């Protein structure tokens, strides 16, 4: 009975409210960015939009490892990817100005795509490696004064919840820019909204920040070591399911 009621709520209350909130946030974004810049405009639009989405969907977020986050430091953030809700959790609660690396197709999503472009997020054409590299190169100049860049190094959502193999693009950028990597684990979001499903479930998720990792060397072995350290940190918490505050 409870599940049936929540399903009705999802479509007839949550969906209309979030559609209206998305349109409003998008309008504010277009108005504010020219005057306030992407950083402040994003904090005033995208962050409240994300938190509202979580609130209305009955999702509580528990935070762990915030002591690893230096507000003045720019990072290359790497996170696992389980659900569309990952976006709201990271944007709403990471408390860090960052730019997403997202697939080119998302640019075409009404309201959200144009706003992401306006806020400086980076669209990657995964079918054109040269264009993708050029997009990342153009983003490097923005990573100053604490502004960071966020990758899902698996490349796409995990359909079965298992952590996939990491691609090395984020790690090469961290090495080239001499920036620390910040591994982040998301747990519980797959249960909120499973892949290939439109049926939400209220619940609790966790956002865990790990100690920063540096790429100690210019060779491929140093890159592989950084990949393994980040993946091991993320995988360890993902396997345990860190939902109790520490």
Automatic annotation (TrEMBL):
Task: Provide the reaction this enzyme catalyses.
Answer: a 1-acyl-sn-glycero-3-phosphate + an acyl-CoA = a 1,2-diacyl-sn-glycero-3-phosphate + CoA
What molecular function terms (GO) are annotated for this protein? acyltransferase activity
**Membership in a protein family:** Belongs to the 1-acyl-sn-glycerol-3-phosphate acyltransferase family.
Q: Which residue windows are transmembrane per the record?
A: 6-33
Q: What's the top EC group for this one?
A: transferase
Q: Give the enzyme's EC designation.
A: 2.3.1.51
Q: Could you tell me the superkingdom of the organism this chain comes from?
A: Bacteria
Which pathway does this chain act in? Lipid metabolism; Phospholipid metabolism; CDP-diacylglycerol biosynthesis; CDP-diacylglycerol from sn-glycerol 3-phosphate: step 2/3
According to UniProt, the name of this protein is 1-acyl-sn-glycerol-3-phosphate acyltransferase
Return the domain comment text from this UniProt entry. Answer: The HXXXXD motif is essential for acyltransferase activity and may constitute the binding site for the phosphate moiety of the glycerol-3-phosphate.
